[in-house]
């Protein structure tokens, strides 16, 4: 049906079920579809030529807006908490308070750096941030077909928007839920706005933004893209959902985590740095035109 689903990177627990969901969504028509996607390591690359690519937080952490002392502290936080985040032997309940701790400490350190709003574009430009191969087709095609794309990220919204703006794909159909910086009148970072979005509380974030989902209630068919088990709740705000097809990028610790991803996502992409499979599905849902 979709040749790309036979790619070597593709794993499915129940291929038959995937076909059924796709057929049901095609029948309903692309004007009933919405896309909800994570950003870091889902729309952006995990690695390039063997080197890790930066997340929104890393772009800032690696920049010259951050003092060396602060960089060391942020690195220590990463070394402490990232292994917990991807530890398949711990439950999400157990990880949750630790993720809040990590994000809160990191944001506090960033605020102390008095980061200037007008320097963010340059920081993104100088970074190694990379969207996945095929990103232009994904963003442009969704825009051409008026399919809403919600990017739901535990990263930093200001940086995220700058990445897609510089890539030329921040189209009007794109909406972003993320952690946004709050700048004082002189343009210095003084805090982060609103409720913290971290990797395991996206469900709460979804439910806080009911207005967005209310507007899209005529689009009960969801294509969800994520790279963490925490991303599976991003669509929990969708009203009267009919079908959801969940595509998960498994980038790291593949063998340990493969089974839990197969149990949770409909399609799992193993160490796949492209958007080839999501693009093929999107083209199929829009009648390939």
TrEMBL record:
Source organism's superkingdom? Eukaryota
- E.C. no: 3.1.3.5
Query: Which reactions fall under this protein's catalytic activity?
Result: CMP + H2O = cytidine + phosphate; N(7)-methyl-GMP + H2O = N(7)-methylguanosine + phosphate; a ribonucleoside 5'-phosphate + H2O = a ribonucleoside + phosphate
Naming one, the record's GO cellular component terms include:
cytoplasm
- Keyword annotations for this protein? Cytoplasm, Hydrolase, Magnesium, Metal-binding, Nucleotide metabolism, Nucleotide-binding
Record GO biological process: nucleotide metabolic process
- GO molecular function per UniProt: 5'-nucleotidase activity; magnesium ion binding; nucleotide binding
Give the record's family classification: Belongs to the pyrimidine 5'-nucleotidase family.
**What is known about its subunit structure?**
Monomer.
Chain's role: Specifically hydrolyzes 7-methylguanosine monophosphate (m(7)GMP) to 7-methylguanosine and inorganic phosphate. The specific activity for m(7)GMP may protect cells against undesired salvage of m(7)GMP and its incorporation into nucleic acids. Also has weak activity for CMP. UMP and purine nucleotides are poor substrates.
PANTHER family listed in its UniProt record: 5'-NUCLEOTIDASE, 7-METHYLGUANOSINE PHOSPHATE-SPECIFIC 5'-NUCLEOTIDASE
> Protein name, please?
5'-nucleotidase
